[in-house]
Design goal:
Low-confidence stretches: 190-203
Helix content: 40-55%
Number of domains: 2
Strand content: under 5%
Largest sheet: none
Structural class: mainly alpha
Radius of gyration: 31 Å
Length: 203
């Protein structure tokens, strides 16, 4: 009786999504001595690989990726004229460049960094009317964000105090000088037919 060979006992699959049969074809191509025949074999393998993803096989970038995958499965030892410049082995496992993030922490997460950036810009505006208009807009946005996270009413004085704190005193505003929108107005949902009316007017 022939012994059963389990997958765990077989050669590790570099790209398991293609299955063992494709890997066996690639391994066979590596043994073909005639370069022309080896190249034709490689093209056949790529066609079979593409047939596994019929909705993508004619997309140019995808075909390029298939040839990259063939080279990877062959451990870059398949000596043929590739129709594309394939990925280099030394670049295959390079770690991506680190993305630089701002280290500045958000003071109140429910307001977010967007509000803090607006407050910073507001402190640099010299025109008083423009500055007051932006302060009111920021205050309403802060109130809306507060209500979104806390699901409760909020006193306008709390918003003004937070605005003053977040600006580190650079945006000086008195409670009597600013009137914020009501909580219901800020959190009111758009009517169901609002989007339909908007589409009609946009035509």
């Amino acid at each position: 009786m022939k012994n059963i060979e389990y997958n765990t006992q077989q050669k590790h699959l570099v790209l398991p999504e293609y299955g063992r049969n494709i890997q066996n074809m690639v391994d066979h191509a590596l043994t073909i001595e005639d370069r022309a025949i080896r190249t034709r074999c490689a093209y056949t393998i790529v066609e079979i690989m593409g047939n596994m993803f019929p909705h993508l096989r004619n997309v140019e970038d995808f075909r390029h990726k298939l040839w990259d995958h063939l080279a990877i499965m062959a451990d870059f030892k398949l000596d043929i004229d590739y129709p594309y410049e394939i990925v280099k082995k030394e670049n295959l496992y390079n770690r991506p460049d680190k993305v630089d993030y701002k280290d500045r922490r958000v003071t109140y997460k429910h307001y977010g960094r967007y509000v803090e950036n607006l407050i910073e810009k507001c402190s640099k505006i010299e025109d008083q009317n423009e500055r007051d208009a932006l302060i009111a807009m920021i205050g309403n946005q802060m109130k809306k964000s507060f209500l979104t996270w806390n699901k409760d009413t909020v006193d306008d004085k709390k918003i003004i105090d937070d605005l003053r704190e977040l600006s580190r005193g650079q945006v000086l505003v008195d409670f009597e000088d600013i009137r914020l929108s009501g909580s219901k107005d800020l959190m009111q949902k758009k009517p169901k037919n609002a989007s339909n009316n908007q589409r009609k007017h946009s035509r």
